[in-house]
Amino acid sequence: MTLRNFNIEFINPKNFKLDPNKNKVVMVVNIATHCGYTPQLSKLEALYQKYSHKGFLIIGVPSNEFGEQTPGQDEEIATFCKRNYGVSFPITSKTLVKGNDKNNFFDFLIKKTGGVEIRWNFEKFLIFKNGKEVQRFQSNEDPLSSTITNLIEKELKDET
Questions:
Q1: Which CATH number fits domain 3-15+27-157: 1.20.1250.20, 3.10.50.40, 3.40.30.10, 3.90.470.20?
Q2: Kind of pairing, strands 25-31 and 56-62?
Q3: Which residues carry out catalysis?
Q4: d(CA 57, CA 2)
């Protein structure tokens, strides 16, 4: 099962589709607009700008499940991210990322990384090109940390 097996609704850009013919390194992040970690959006954008031309993709997934820190409708969230943090990476519709009713995509990511529920906003899942390997990073892990960037660089170089 890979990222392309899931139905993901995007709000920015609305017609975004994952190219089924290209293997990408993908980082999925449950984002929030009113969280202490929200400034990570600018670092995520910097990461996206640095590697997107090499086959790296970030997908921001708004969730309001942690302290109701993502109020507003989808369009408001997309506008906030763009205006305040320059976000150009794709953003999905607001999604449930924990509990029994969580999106099946997050159920897959959580199971691939040990089965522990997401604890807070800005947890990061790095999906390797083969779609089978997933590495998980907690909210406090800086998106530009050498741990993350070294993994991305290694995976972008490796032919799988």
A1: 3.40.30.10
A2: parallel
A3: 35
A4: 14
Residues above pLDDT 90, as percent of the chain: 72
The 3 state secondary structure assigned to the chain is: CCHHHCCCCEEECCCCCCCCCCCCEEEEEEECCCCCCCCHHHHHHHHHHHHHHHCEEEEEEECCCCCCCCCCCHHHHHHHHHHHHCCCCCEECCCCCCCCCCCHHHHHHHHHCCCCCCCCCCCEEEECCCCCCEEEECCCCCCCCHHHHHHHHHHHHCCC
Q: Nearest to residue 70, comparing CAs of 32, 124, 18, 110?
A: 32
Does 16 have pLDDT greater than 70? no
Say what the pTM is.
Answer: 0.91
Dist CA 17 CA 85 (whole Å): 23
Q: Where are the domains of the chain?
A: 3-15+27-157
In this prediction, residue 15 has a pLDDT band, given cuts at 50, 70 and 90, of: low
CB atoms within 10 A of CB 104: 11
